[in-house]
Amino acid sequence: MSTKPSATLTERRKAATQLDIAHAAAELFATRGPDGTTAEEIARRAGVALRTFYRYFRSKQDAVSPLLADGADRWRALLAAAEPGTPLREALERAAGQALATPDEDAVRALLRTRGLLRAAADDPALRAVWYRVNQESEERLVPVLARLAGPDADPLDVRLAAAAATDAIRIALETWAATDAGTEGPASPTALATRCLRALTGGTVPGERRV
Length: 212
What we know:
Domain HTH tetR-type: 15-75
Distance between the termini: 53 Å
Number of helices: 9
CATH superfamily of the largest domain: Tetracycline Repressor, domain 2
Number of domains: 2
Pfam families: TetR_N
Radius of gyration: 18 Å
Protein name: TetR/AcrR family transcriptional regulator
Organism: Streptomyces andamanensis
Oligomer: single chain
DNA-binding region: 38-57
Order of helices and strands: HHHHHHHHH
């Protein structure tokens, strides 16, 4: 029992260091672009040694993966907290709305940071590959969450299709928003676009709901 708290503390420290590096990378990418930024500069900005940087990340583009994954992690956690039996479409939309909401300045800054990274990814194949990988990993982790919500009688194929459609809906919403100058709230916000995409892409693929 004595080793569990130490392991938890170690993991927290590791996650905090990774986030520090990710924030440093995002700031430099926003001002200089990926081409104008080196791993050494990211490590220096984060206050870590270069060897520490490469202990956690394979490349400078990979360094922003914790930030890109943050929204998906929060969305998945909100879904995991939903009561079994909640209509899946309702649970997906509610969780997306909460995960993409901007109730304070920190949330606004987080979304604007994502916009900057997605814009940088448009001209950087390596950064774009990180974004796609983050989404693929999110989709895989979403499957058991949706399976629990859908219930034991749900067809596993339908669950996988729903996870893929829901993940793509959020990805497309964020990419569409990032290409504009729309605000973080309102009819062209990430929340509004995510709701629209979820309704379009999950039509007919939501387990446990009648197809029309």
